[in-house]
Amino acid sequence: MNSEKSLPEEWRRLVEEAMESTITKEEFKAFLIEVGQQKGITSA
């Protein structure tokens, strides 16, 4: 399953904002995991 094409618009905006910011990939991954847990989404 290609997760990029199935991302909701909200997640696309988060990704775009992250790419424009200065956070590292590790910080972004941790952020996604945190947000995912808050929304009840499980991620690998």
Structural class: mainly alpha
Rg on CA atoms, Å:
11 Å
User: Which residue ranges are poorly predicted, with pLDDT under 50 across at least 5 consecutive positions?
Assistant: none
Mean pLDDT: 76
Order of helix and strand elements from N to C terminus: HHH
Query: What is the 3D shape?
Result: flat
What is the straight-line distance between the termini?
A: 13 Å
The major pleated sheet works out as: none
Question: Could you walk me through the main structural features you see in this protein, from its secondary elements to its overall organization?
Answer:
The chain has 44 residues and is mostly helical. The relative contact order is 0.11. The protein has helices spanning 3-6, 9-20, 25-38. The longest helix has 14 residues, at 25-38. It has one domain (7-38). It starts with a helix and ends in a 6-residue tail after the last helix. It has 3 helices and no strands. The chain is flat. The chain is 68% helix and 0% strand.
Secondary structure elements and pairings:
Layout: H1 3-6, H2 9-20, H3 25-38
Which descriptors would you attach to this protein?
44 residues; mainly alpha; 3 helices; flat; DNA-binding anti-repressor SinI; DNA binding; SinR/SinI_dimer_dom
Short characterization:
By secondary structure, this protein is mainly alpha-helical. The chain has three helices and no strands. GO terms for molecular function: DNA binding; protein dimerization activity.
